[in-house]
Design a protein that fits this description.
The protein is α+β, with helices and mostly antiparallel strands. The protein has 2 domains: about 30 residues; about 180 residues, no CATH class. It contains 7 helices and 8 strands; from the N terminus they run H-H-E-E-H-H-H-H-H-E-E-E-E-E-E. A 6-stranded antiparallel beta sheet has the order 3-8-4-5-6-7. Strands 1-2 form a two-stranded parallel ribbon. A hairpin with a 5-residue loop joins strand 5 and strand 6. Helix 2 packs across helix 3. The protein is globular and about 80 Å long.
Length: about 220
């Protein structure tokens, strides 16, 4: 009888540990967050202020990202004649688009013009200004030629700064100014309709990073 109780208790503990692990891995249980100062990393400040609002681009982009996710956009992939979503819905590319737009970089116009001038890079048969800037592949090409390309090695932690852009094979997000205990930064992104937090510790879970960019 005693052995049976011990077995049941051990099983309960194991199940609880497994549940805790799953909840932690899926960011349902909040992780402790660190900052640049915890790792003696100097915060990057851009020398450019594109929209002349007295806030440098790097800081501006990060601030705008946080303002955008405060609206708690719902995930839905759909076409807009306005280009930018105007109904509180969006996808991963919209996090980047809105973050840059309010810093003075209108990706709808910028990507459209770059595609027109460099069609061979994009391999697009029909250009559509309203949607082309909301595709991950197009944004990766655009940033490759119009932004500062940086390392994709996540363990070179001092090379990653809040406000940077990270591109995965089929996803994109903005790098947070918060880090995990290893110094690897969180990502502010919008991945699916079931996402609980927009700021997550996901870089180590992805082995498909194809781009890391800084606007200025």
């Amino acid at each position: 009888m005693k052995k049976k109780k011990i077995f049941i208790l051990s099983l309960i503990i194991i199940i609880l540990l497994m549940v805790f692990y799953v909840l932690y891995e899926f960011n349902i249980i909040p992780h402790k967050k660190y900052t640049n100062s915890d790792f003696n990393i100097e915060t990057h400040v851009s020398k450019i202020d594109k929209d002349n609002d007295l806030i440098d681009d790097q800081t501006d982009i990060l601030n705008n990202t946080r303002e955008y996710i405060k609206t708690k956009p719902k995930y839905k992939s759909k076409y807009y004649s306005t280009g930018y979503p105007n109904d509180n819905f969006g996808v991963c590319t919209d996090v980047v688009a809105f973050s840059l737009k309010d810093a003075g970089y209108d990706l709808m116009e910028l990507v459209y013009n770059h595609i027109k001038e460099n069609r061979e890079l994009y391999d697009i048969k029909v250009i559509d200004k309203n949607i082309d800037f909301r595709r991950v592949r197009n944004l990766n090409i655009y940033f490759k030629y119009n932004a500062i390309s940086l390392t994709t090695d996540i363990f070179k932690i001092d090379a990653w700064q809040g406000g940077d852009i990270v591109v995965f094979k089929s996803h994109i997000g903005i790098i947070s100014d918060k880090r995990n205990k290893k110094g690897i930064p969180y990502v502010i992104h919008h991945a699916n309709p079931y996402q609980i937090s927009y700021e997550e510790d996901i870089l180590e879970k992805h082995n498909d990073i194809i781009g890391h960019y800084r606007v200025s």
